Amino acid sequence: MTHPPRSRRSTRELNQRRTRNKASDDRRVEDRPLLSGLSTEQLERVSRQAVRVSLGTEQLLFSQGDPAERFYLVLKGQIQLFRLSPGGAEKVIELVSPGQTFAEALMFLNAPRYPVCAGALVPSELLSLDARDFAQMLRESVDTCFLMLGSLSQRLRGLIGEIDNLTMHTASSRVARYLLAKVPPERRGLKLDVRKGVLASRLSIQPETFSRVVKDLAGQGIIEVQGAQVTILDRAALGEVAELQDNLELGPQGSVPAALLKG
Question: First CA to last CA across the chain, in angstroms?
Answer without folding.
Answer: 36
